[in-house]
Design brief:
single chain, Heme Oxygenase, Chain A, mainly alpha
Length: 207
């Protein structure tokens, strides 16, 4: 698909995701702790994904340097979620099967489709952080939860990642954008199942 069409469709999907995730019970400590545990589980693979993408692209690819920059930007982010879990005193939290499916799918997209197809997953998460991260952070802080560094960084300091990623996608081919959008849609379905399980788990623990 053409760049303008992609931008329109990708923004619509991210906006839909934001509406649905904002409707989740962020003030519920069980929900937040579960969300944090799932996030920590897949964030730990981010550097590996980016290295795979970088190494899988030819030297003259227009996004080669972008992936290299992103590797440096994301370095150590998993430590933030790990520390937040410690502040929340969360140990041995259940990691849902769908959470594993969420990150494991990226190995398929990168290896068997193309390295740039991974941008669908990245765009989804960067868009959610940029558009709804401030809302999540405000609600978590109002609830008095201490471990929120991961949210704070992504809601306040990394908001430029989403528009930068959209700009990068504009440099690619129509076929690339088709693959990226397909990954974005699949990733969105899985992410919604993750937060849905977080909500169900929270209700069960509160009962």
């Amino acid at each position: 698909m053409r760049a303008n069409e992609f931008n329109e469709k990708a923004n619509a999907k991210v906006n839909e995701l934001c509406r649905k995730v904002e409707a989740m019970p962020w003030e519920n400590i069980h929900f937040y702790n579960s969300w944090l545990a799932q996030t920590n589980a897949f964030v730990g693979h981010t550097s590996t994904f980016l290295h795979m993408c970088y190494e899988g692209l030819p030297t003259d690819h227009p996004l080669k340097s972008r992936f290299h920059e992103h590797i440096e930007e994301e370095d150590g982010h998993e430590k933030m979620s790990q520390n937040d879990l410690k502040f929340q005193k969360v140990q041995d939290a259940e990691i849902f099967q769908v959470t594993g499916a969420f990150w494991k799918a990226q190995y398929y997209w990168i290896r068997d489709v193309s390295p740039v197809s991974h941008l669908g997953y990245a765009l989804l998460l960067e868009g959610l952080a940029a558009k709804s991260g401030p809302v999540f952070l405000k609600r978590v802080k109002a609830a008095g939860f201490k471990g929120s560094t991961f949210l704070k960084v992504h809601a306040e300091e990394d908001t430029d990642h989403f528009p930068e990623a959209l700009e990068a996608v504009g440099k690619l081919t129509d076929k690339d954008r088709d693959d990226i959008y397909a990954n974005l849609c699949e990733s969105m379905d899985l992410y919604l199942k993750i937060v849905g399980e977080c909500s169900v788990s929270a209700l069960q623990k509160a009962a």
